[in-house]
Every structure is written in structure tokens, then in C-alpha cells.
């Protein structure tokens, strides 16, 4: 199984743990991820508010055009990149007028995109292409008894509703957690917003949104939170202490990318586990599964 | 008998503002809003918004330009897409909010800190083809000024933790090699976007 891979800006900076674990997990599952050469920023949910939807989508499409020349579907890890690229791709497929005008812009850089590819979330690829049975077979260190809150976040399942999972009650993440031997906890806030890119401009929004997510995870008895999204991971990890300070709470819930849990369960290298990047230390709670390394 | 609480003149709506908003990229969808309020109950930041999206759309229809453009509603939208996924009329609220942010910036209503963040983010993308957190942060504080820097110092523990866990590279990523072509593409896209808006 070969795919084009779009890492996105955060995986080179705040979410290196995501990149390391995705690459290792994909390889273990027999997926070959070919990074899109010279990819550029997708614009996230920010750029269109400055330059407009059309310009952002053309910018995002530069990546799709390069991928199309390689003839491989695009796999994305980051939820915000997934949203931007998947919506752009959908528009290329469905809106003929848009496609023609957007290609006029792409032509200024010598590129063209026909809309022939699929843009896919890594979580969905793991479940639909590799399959949960294969995942379960790969598990060498079952995460028995580990209570995991599967935090899907907002954009993964709502970029394009019903593209692969239910936007209101997503289940893919929980099934994956269970395939690793862990227990997916009751977690009603699993698809609520973490506050998104407001960390810099309006920290209160992140603190307040995250507080509700911690409360929900704690009520379900979660020992760790697992997420596919770099933005969610950063907000919940980096601002957890701040939530405790401001709200007099005492949450201590490590936040990992689901791919990090997979890397542990598959007994891949500690480099792929990438646990040093976690701010809320996961070492104690994961000690029963990480022994000997 | 003297009539009370009745208007002697019919209410006149100024439709020019509404028409201008409807002409934005996703603006025409606002006309589909039937004021049901699903967006308001779905919204994760509704509690701190001046007006819910439903109320904002009504103000647009009523021509209340000042109220709309001064509102924090679209700046507090986190693009979580819950309203967009639930809207029974298929209004892509998130995209409308992006249009409103762009329009507000163009009209000089950029006093909210999010506007500075958006501009800083775009400046990074335009100059590098990729986003560098350090660059976005520096540009943000340049726009917002000293007061905001003082607020940032209260958050320094968060930054220090990020640094300690290798989450904040001090050097930016390499520029996109095809940055020249990317700039040409963006320039052409802007030109076409303006042309399409007039069409």
C-alpha cells in the first residue's frame, strides 16, 4: 500500500511526536508513505479569513497537484490540514467552474489538478486499509487495563461529515483503542472543540474549552487521552497545568497521539513512542506497558 | 383614540449592507438561514459571544452594519464545524465566519487579538510557504504592542514547558523551494478571486 503523505507545519515543530509515531506505525502496517515533495502550508482554518476561501484552496491545491503527478492518494495526519485539503479536493471534484478557475491560478506556477485523488485521514486509513484485525495481530504489548479517552476533536470527523465516521458520535478511535487491548472510556466530550488556534490570541478560550474536556475524560475514569490532532494534543497537554491553576482542579491526564499508543503496543522503537515530547508526563501511567525499554 | 406602540411610518430596512455581505464568497448562504437557532446550541463558544450566529445573521438582514462588524462572534468562532455539520439548511457557517473575518479586517474592524494572529499567520505563510510558530508569535506581538507582551509573560511557564519538551524549535523550517511559483499562484488566485466576485 503506497500513499502520498502530507505532514503539515505542526509535525515539524510542536507535533514531532505525531510525525515520528505515524511514520513508524505506517511502516509496521506495511504502508509506504511518500512525503509530497516541497509541500507548502495548507492554510489551516486561518488563511481564508485573510485572503479568502478561493485563494486558500488554490494554495492548498498546489500540494494536491504535486501528489497527482505521483498518482497516489494523499494521507494526512493533522486534522486541520485534513480539513483544508479534503474540502479543497471535494470542491475540485464537484464544482466544475471552480476547478477551471482554480487551475487557471495553478497554471501560473506550472501546475494542474484534475481532482483525481482521495484525501484521507491517517486514522481512517489505518482502520479501512490495514484493518482492525491486522492492528490487533500486530500488538505485542497489549495495553491491558489502560483506560483511554479517545479524543477525536472537531475537524477530523466534521471536515466532511460522514466521510468515514459519525460527526456526532464518532467510534473509529474507540475501536482502535480497543484493538490495542486498552479500554475506551465513556467520553461524551470526545468530539467537542479544544479551543483551536486561540492559544496565543485568546488563551481563555483554550483554557475554558479544555477544562470541559478534562472534566468529561476524568468522569469516565480515563488515565490518558489519545487524539489524532496536533492542535488538540498541544492545547490539552501544554495548558493542562494552566487549567488546574485557574480552576483549582487537579487533572493529571497525559495526552498522546493515538499513533504513540500504537507504537508502544506494536513494540516499536522508543524513538517512535516519542514520549519525551509529552509535557504532562505519561511515564508513570504507561509503566506497566513500557517495561524493558 | 390615540394609538400607542404603533409606528406611523413603515420600518425601512437598509439592504445595502446585507447585499454586500451576501456578495462575499459564502455570503449568499446567509439567505438560507431560517433562524432556527441550531447553530447557537451547537456552538462551543456561544457563552462568550456577543451574538449567536443566528442573531448575527438576523442583524445582517436588518442592515445593522456597526453591530455586526463590531461583534466578537466571528472572531470567537473556533472553526470546530459543529454548527456547519448540524445546520438543517446547509449553511456552511464556518466558511461564512471566515468571510466575515476577512470583510471586518478590510473594513478596519481588526481590534480583536485574533485579527492580529490571523494576519501574523498569513505573513508567515506568504513569506515562507510554511508556518513557523516563533515567527507567528513575534509578528503577533509586533502588531499587538507592549501591553500584550506583559500578558504573555504571565504565560511563560507554558512556553518554557514547550521548549523543555522540544516542542518549540528556535529556528524556522526551510522555505518552500518553489516559493516563487507559490507566490505567482497566490497572486493569480487573488486576481481571479476579485474578478469572480465582480462577475
Q: How would the blueprint of this fold be written?
A:
The complex is a heterodimer of chains A (293) and B (199).
Chain A: E1 2-6, H1 16-28, E2 32-35, H2 48-51, H3 53-70, E3 74-76, H4 79-94, H5 96-107, E4 119-121, H6 122-130, H7 132-138, E5 147-150, H8 155-158, H9 172-179, E6 183-184, H10 203-219, E7 224-227, H11 230-238, H12 240-247, E8 255-257, H13 258-265, H14 270-273, H15 283-290
Helix pairs in contact in A: 1-13, 3-4, 3-5, 4-5, 6-7, 10-12
Chain B: H1 15-22, H2 38-42, H3 53-61, H4 65-70, H5 73-76, H6 82-86, H7 93-106, H8 113-128, H9 133-144, H10 146-153, H11 156-164, H12 179-198
Helix pairs in contact in B: 8-9
Question: How would you characterize the overall build of this protein?
Answer:
- Chain A is α/β, with parallel strands linked by helices and 293 residues long.
- Chain A has 2 domains: 120 residues, Glutathione S-transferase Yfyf (Class Pi), Chain A, domain 2 (Up-down Bundle), CATH 1.20.1050; 159 residues, Rossmann fold (3-Layer(aba) Sandwich), CATH 3.40.50.11810.
- Chain A is 49% helix and 10% strand.
- Chain A has 15 helices and 8 strands.
- In chain A, the strands form 2 sheets. Chain A has a 4-stranded parallel β-sheet, sandwiched between helices.
- Chain A is globular.
- The model of chain A has no long low-confidence stretch (mean pLDDT 97).
- Chain B has 199 residues and is mainly alpha-helical.
- Chain B folds into 2 domains: 92 residues, Alpha-helical ferredoxin (Fumarate Reductase Iron-sulfur Protein, Chain B, domain 2, Orthogonal Bundle), CATH 1.10.1060; 72 residues, no CATH class.
- Helices cover 58% and strands 0% of the residues of chain B.
- The model of chain B has no long low-confidence stretch (mean pLDDT 92).
- At the A-B interface, α2, α3, α5 and α10 of A face α6, α7, α8, α9 and α11 of B.
Amino acid at each position: 500500500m503506497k500513499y502520498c503523505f502530507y505532514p503539515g507545519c505542526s509535525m515539524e515543530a510542536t507535533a514531532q511526536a505525531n510525525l515520528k509515531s505515524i511514520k513508524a506505525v505506517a511502516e509496521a502496517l506495511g504502508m509506504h508513505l511518500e512525503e509530497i515533495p516541497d509541500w507548502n502550508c495548507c492554510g489551516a482554518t486561518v488563511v481564508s479569513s485573510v485572503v479568502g476561501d478561493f485563494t486558500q484552496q488554490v494554495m492548498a491545491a498546489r500540494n494536491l497537484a504535486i501528489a497527482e503527478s505521483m498518482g497516489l492518494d494523499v494521507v494526512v495526519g493533522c486534522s486541520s490540514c485534513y480539513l483544508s485539503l479534503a474540502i479543497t479536493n471535494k470542491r475540485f471534484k464537484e464544482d466544475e467552474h471552480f476547478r477551471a478557475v482554480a487551475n487557471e491560478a495553478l497554471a501560473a506556477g506550472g501546475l494542474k489538478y484534475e481532482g483525481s485523488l482521495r484525501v484521507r485521514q491517517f486514522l481512517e486509513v489505518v482502520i479501512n486499509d490495514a484493518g482492525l484485525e491486522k492492528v490487533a495481530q500486530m500488538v505485542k504489548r497489549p495495553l491491558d487495563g489502560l483506560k483511554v479517552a479517545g479524543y477525536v476533536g472537531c475537524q477530523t470527523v466534521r471536515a466532511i461529515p460522514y466521510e468515514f465516521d459519525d460527526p456526532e458520535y464518532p467510534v473509529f478511535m474507540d475501536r482502535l483503542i480497543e484493538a490495542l487491548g486498552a479500554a475506551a472510556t465513556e467520553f461524551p466530550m470526545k468530539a467537542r472543540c479544544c479551543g483551536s488556534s486561540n492559544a496565543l490570541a485568546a488563551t481563555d478560550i483554550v483554557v475554558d474549552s479544555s477544562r470541559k474536556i478534562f472534566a468529561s475524560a476524568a468522569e469516565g475514569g480515563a488515565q490518558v487521552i489519545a487524539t489524532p490532532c496536533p492542535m488538540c494534543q498541544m492545547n490539552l497537554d501544554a495548558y493542562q497545568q494552566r487549567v488546574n491553576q485557574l480552576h483549582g482542579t487537579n487533572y493529571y491526564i497525559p495526552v498522546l497521539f493515538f499513533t504513540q499508543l500504537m507504537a508502544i503496543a506494536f513494540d516499536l522503537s522508543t524513538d517512535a513512542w516519542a514520549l519525551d515530547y509529552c509535557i504532562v508526563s505519561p511515564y508513570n501511567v504507561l509503566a506497566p506497558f513500557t517495561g524493558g525499554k | 383614540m390615540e394609538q400607542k406602540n404603533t409606528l406611523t411610518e413603515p420600518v425601512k430596512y437598509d439592504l445595502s449592507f446585507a447585499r454586500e455581505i451576501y456578495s462575499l464568497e459564502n455570503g449568499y448562504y446567509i439567505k438560507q438561514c431560517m433562524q432556527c437557532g441550531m447553530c447557537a446550541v451547537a456552538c462551543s463558544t456561544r457563552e462568550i459571544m456577543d451574538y449567536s450566529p443566528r442573531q448575527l445573521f438576523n442583524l445582517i438582514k436588518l442592515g445593522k452594519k456597526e453591530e455586526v462588524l463590531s461583534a466578537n462572534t466571528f472572531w470567537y468562532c473556533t472553526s470546530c464545524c459543529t454548527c456547519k455539520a448540524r445546520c438543517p439548511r446547509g449553511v456552511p457557517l464556518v466558511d461564512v465566519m471566515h468571510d466575515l473575518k476577512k470583510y471586518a479586517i478590510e473594513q478596519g474592524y481588526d481590534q480583536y487579538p485574533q485579527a492580529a494572529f490571523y494576519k501574523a499567520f498569513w505573513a508567515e505563510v506568504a513569506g515562507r510557504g510554511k508556518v513557523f510558530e516563533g515567527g507567528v508569535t513575534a509578528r503577533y506581538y509586533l502588531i499587538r504592542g507592549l501591553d500584550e507582551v506583559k500578558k504573555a509573560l504571565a504565560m511563560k511557564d507554558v512556553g518554557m514547558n514547550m521548549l523543555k519538551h522540544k516542542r518549540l524549535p528556535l529556528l524556522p523550517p526551510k522555505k518552500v523551494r518553489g516559493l516563487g511559483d507559490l507566490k505567482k499562484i497566490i497572486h493569480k488566485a487573488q486576481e481571479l478571486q476579485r474578478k469572480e466576485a465582480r462577475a
